[in-house]
Automatic annotation (TrEMBL):
Keywords of the record: Cell membrane, Cell projection, Coiled coil, Cytoplasm, DNA-binding, Membrane, Nucleus, Phosphoprotein
Name by which UniProt lists this protein: Switch-associated protein 70
Subunit structure, interactors included: The SWAP complex consists of NPM1, NCL, PARP1 and SWAP70.
Domain annotation PH: ranges: 209-305
Residue stretches of biased makeup (Basic and acidic residues): 349-374
Protein origin, superkingdom: Eukaryota
PANTHER family, A to Z: SWAP-70 RECOMBINASE, SWITCH-ASSOCIATED PROTEIN 70
Localisation per UniProt entry: Cell membrane; Cell projection, Lamellipodium; Cytoplasm; Nucleus
Gene3D superfamilies to which the protein is assigned, alphabetical: Pleckstrin-homology domain (PH domain)/Phosphotyrosine-binding domain (PTB) (2.30.29.30)
Amino acid sequence: MWLRDEILKSIWHAFTALDVDQRGKVSKSQLKVLSHSLCTVMKIPHDPVALAEHFKDDDKGPLSNQGYMPYLNRFILDKVQEEFDVLEFNKMCWTLCYKKNISTKHLLISDDDAFKVWCISNFLSEDKYPLVMITEEIEYFLRKLMEAMGSGWSEEKFCDYKLQLHSKNNRLSAWELIELLGLGHFTKGMSRQTLSMGIGEVFQELILDVLKQGYMMKKGHKRKNWTERWFVLGPNSLSYYVCEDLVEKKGDIILDPTCCVESLPDKEGKKCMFIIKCTDKSFEISASDKKKKQEWLQAIQTCLQLLRLGLPSPHREARLRRRELRQRQQTEEDDLAERMKHLQAANENKQRQLEGMRKKMEEAAARAAEEEHRRKQTQLDLQDRYRLDLEREKMVRQQMEEQVAQKSSELEQYLLRVRELEDMYRRLEEALEDEKQAKQDEEAMHKLQASLLEEEAAKRAELERFHQQQQRALSQTEAEKQELVAEQRVKERELQAAMLQLEKLERERLGALEQYQEVSMKLERAANKTKTWKDKVAKHEGLVRLIQPGHKGPQRITNWGPASFTDVELELRKKSWQERKNQGAPAQ
């Protein structure tokens, strides 16, 4: 009968292989395929909508192993009614997971041998997830393998390997165990065939529950002839095949608690005979020698004894005993650790008591020493008091001398600072005088510019008047034309002289403008110099307040340069000139 815990280990490997993203969850569509494969192998009628119905209220997407477990128990494992091929079941799970975890191309073992090692690892691993084999089970398996290959066990080599296992928390996964054997760490010098045969023998013993196997002669029931068969002893049956490849099975001898096995005397030319008596039939068998006969009798009797006691196969029982022993050892270690904690706590309590007594004794000794010290200290204090008074007087005198020296230094610094401020004040007054002179020059230039503009306006008015007179003269009579032409020539000469005078005034205006620009530059330099001294005065505690120049509004610019009159005055002059022009036109 299959064991649910062992079946769940193979399913766990298949479930983990479907978890591509390593998130611990598998999509429902992949779980449907896995569930269908499990039902097919375990001979369970498959319900295609059971998974969807079971998780119809679950909208969380992929399922974890814990989320899939209730469905697996209820709809698959609880419905198993008959025996199924466990080997085929393991093959299916192995096919789903091995390619995603390991490649056997660079290993010394084939895919079939790797599958057998994977099954053995699942069988010997602890019932905890993720599945791992601890050091004791690894040693048990390697000893079995060495024994099956006919090689001696190297305790020293395994001790060295245990040091390497310490970095992996003294445990291996199934894939690490396959790689360990495939790299030949413990099988150096062994051929691939020997290693494969050893793995196969251990696989048959641990996984297929083969207690013993070998060739023997069996007597037929109908023809009564003797035929050589390959016998395989399991926990509840003795199967026989044509040969050891186990391809053609000839029959099974079903063992139950009512069966018995007995030795037979030699007869019919056959030696080393024994008989297996079952409820409906008896089977006569002949071994090759007495040693083989005794081994087979003992193996079959052990098997029948286990059936009568309801115990599992020997290696399964040994595995349970090893686990129980480890649990007892762990319990004993935990108890020992607990007792050690209690003893340590009691020891610490005693240490604290002793420490308290020691401290009390030290305190008493300290008090006595303190009394003695106080007595001596009183005498020393009287001596030190006079010495301290003398030192205090010396210190006070030194402090007074230092204070006098400090005050003298501060006074010198203060006088030096006053001299610097006086010098700075003198320079600032010079800068202000320069600024005043620049302002006066600027006002003079403004006045000169205004006079030039007035002369220019007068000349322009005169020219306008000459022009009007000329026009009137031209419009009088044709008879006066010659006289007017002569007079016009005179007027033109006067006009040329006036133009020359106007050009002269223009040159004078340009010279005045250049002088104005020079005065402006001087004023700007004086302003910058005043600003520099203002900053210096502000840094020296602001003893002098600078005189700021007044605001200068925008100047009017005419065709002849800066004007000395405002926009309002210019508008008034424009209106006056326009009125004079309009009065002159009707007169002509």
